[in-house]
From TrEMBL:
Domain Nitroreductase: 8-63, 101-159
KW Oxidoreductase (keyword) present: yes
Keywords: Oxidoreductase
Family membership noted in the UniProt record: Belongs to the nitroreductase family.
GO molecular function: oxidoreductase activity
Annotated protein name in UniProt: Nitroreductase
Coiled coil: none
InterPro entries per record: Nitroreductase (IPR029479), Nitroreductase-like (IPR000415)
Pfam families attached to this UniProt entry: Nitroreductase
Organism field: Butyricicoccus porcorum
């Protein structure tokens, strides 16, 4: 499958088989994230793999925020999770001076890492879903995330329980999102 075919085929998975994901596979996925580009090569990330039953139960709880909202009602069926945590970035002095901030690129960098990880998982025959909602205080309590290190997203990882053709992507037309040389 070429890359454009992979882009068309990859979709978020919300139903997983009751089948474990090996640590070898999880480490390959994290390696794909680690090799991602980042502004000033800052690599402002830490990846926490959650694959043991007790830790997965804590993650299931952490994916429910105050008030009971969750972006992952099927969380108890996920074989493994990978939390992507923002780390303090070391950027070039000119970048810090210009923006007054060392974290200017960090969230985009983490997004690039997440996509590399999703496509590596796909290459390994696994499915993923990017989860953007979690309780930061619970992540700190359960997984030792230091205060001030934001969990930017969590990847659900496992074998899809559905064997179906990917649905057609619904995207804005290219002409609406792209132009040459001016707005």
């Amino acid at each position: 499958m070429d890359f454009m075919q992979a882009l068309q085929a990859r979709e978020s998975c919300r139903a997983y088989q009751d089948k474990p994901v090996s640590r070898e596979q999880l480490l390959k996925i994290v390696e794909a994230g680690r090799l991602s580009p980042s502004g000033c090569n800052a690599q402002p990330w830490k990846f926490i793999i959650i694959d043991e039953p007790e830790a997965k139960a804590k993650m299931s709880d952490a994916l429910v925020v105050e008030g009971g909202a969750t972006g992952c009602p099927w969380r108890d069926s996920v074989p493994a999770f990978i939390a992507l945590v923002e780390q303090p970035a070391k950027v070039m002095p000119a970048v810090k001076e210009y923006y007054g901030d060392t974290q200017r690129f960090a969230q985009g960098d983490i997004g690039m890492a997440a996509m590399n990880m999703c496509y590596e998982a796909m290459d390994l025959g696994l499915s993923t879903c990017v989860l953007g909602m979690c309780d930061q205080a619970k992540m700190e309590q359960y997984f030792g995330v230091p205060e001030g290190h934001e969990v930017r997203m969590v990847l659900a990882v496992g074998y899809s329980a559905e064997d179906k053709e990917p649905r057609a992507k619904v995207r804005k037309p290219l002409e609406e999102v792209c132009s040459f040389n001016k707005w």
